[in-house]
Amino acid sequence: MIIRSKAPLRLGLAGGGTDVSPYSDLYGGAILNATINLFAYTTIEPRDDGKIIFESPDRNLREEYNSSEILPTDGDFILHKGVYNRIVKDYTHKALSFKLTTYVDAPPGSGLGTSSTLMVSILGAFTEWCMLPLGEYEIANLAYTIERLDLKMAGGKQDQYAATFGGFNYMEFYKDDKVIVNPLRIKQQIQDELSHNLLLYYTQTNRKSANIIEQQTKNVVQNKQSSIEAMHKLKEQSIMMKESLLIGDIDKMGDILDFGWKYKKLMTKGITNTLLNEIYTCAINSGATGGKVSGAGGGGFMTFYCPNNTKYAVKKALEKFGGCSQTYGFTNSGLTTWKI
């Protein structure tokens, strides 16, 4: 028997950062995101030799352990071991033996929610293997708990829910980890036009989102009003983006993205830099009407809204920065698991 799973990466379209505590606990956060057909894959192959093997072909990494109820959460497979430890602790109550292989269609630190999506994919595979009674909200919340509490990794809540539910979602975040996922019914022709007009550009740079998020959290704790007001504006942006999508006025998205870009940079230092600013200015001068940096910022992917056929001129203009555009499409499916 082989167990497989896949979970989609996401594009954050509006409200980024308002899903991070303590802002979401104090003021309530709101995010609009959509999943794309780039995935995090997991395969579990049960063994009977008392070994646990982790492999990551995309990163050319491998670790092997003797089967144990608790694995050390260090090294190159922290997420994998974090999920395993929680599964044993809460569900199986005994050590397991298996080979776990993972692969992600985008590099770590690229801003598409790769770490949290991988977490959901791994957790989904264990849920399928062990036949755990977990629904979508429970899987997303458990993925968040393992990543943020068990492993002490800084970050927000949107990625786990996007990867689990899939599709276009308007998400609300409140205190006590309460999350409400509101699926948006976006016509296929609108999705197709949106993927045609939204250029996904990889800057060929990565960043550690935890550093940016930790500073953002510090600003809220210290009641830094400029940062908090910027987050308020980004929450407004998510409502603007939801209305634009639902009524099909997608050309307005460029202005909404540009609105968010101006306030995102005010949240904390490190969200942008000289290179990202130059890329953004070049895209706007070449025909884009707005854009954003994916995830916490600092590097990785950037998204630009290019009306009509301006994306071709924008792609050409951005070549001088050494990055590349990423082909993608939207997907309405979230976490998927199966056995063979």
Protein described:
With 340 residues, this protein is of the alpha+beta class. It folds into two domains: 3-186 and 331-339, Ribosomal Protein S5, domain 2, CATH 3.30.230.10; 188-325, 2-Layer Sandwich (Alpha-Beta Plaits). Helix content is 41%, strand content 24%. The protein has eleven helices and twelve strands. It has helices at residues 23-27, 78-92, 114-130, 136-150, 158-165, 188-197, 209-221, 225-247, 253-264, 274-285, 311-318, and strands spanning 3-14, 29-46, 51-56, 61-66, 98-104, 168-173, 179-183, 198-202, 290-293, 301-305, 324-325, 336-339. The strands form two sheets. Strands 1, 2, 3, 4, 5, 6, 7 and 12 form an eight-stranded mixed beta sheet that branches. Strand 3 and strand 4 form a beta hairpin. Helix 2 crosses helix 4, helix 3 packs across helix 4 (136-150) and helix 4 (136-150) packs antiparallel against helix 5 (158-165). The chain is globular. The model has no long low-confidence stretch (mean pLDDT 93).
Beta-strand level of the residues, as a percent range? Answer: 15-25%
Summarize the amount of helix as a percent range.
40-55%
> What's the domain count?
2
* Cα radius of gyration in angstroms: 20 Å
The string of secondary-structure elements, in order, is EHEEEHEHHHEEHEHHHHEEHEE
Total number of helices? 11
- The averaged pLDDT comes out at 93
Structural class: alpha+beta
Secondary-structure arrangement, i.e. CATH architecture of the largest domain: 2-Layer Sandwich
Largest sheet: 8 strands, mixed
Cα-to-Cα separation, first versus last residue: 6 Å
Please give the CATH class of the largest domain.
Alpha Beta
Q: Assembly type of the shown chains?
A: single chain
For the secondary structure, the number of strands is 12
Q: Which regions have little confidence, pLDDT < 50, spanning 5+ residues? A: none
CATH topology-level fold name of the largest domain: Ribosomal Protein S5, domain 2
Give the overall shape: globular
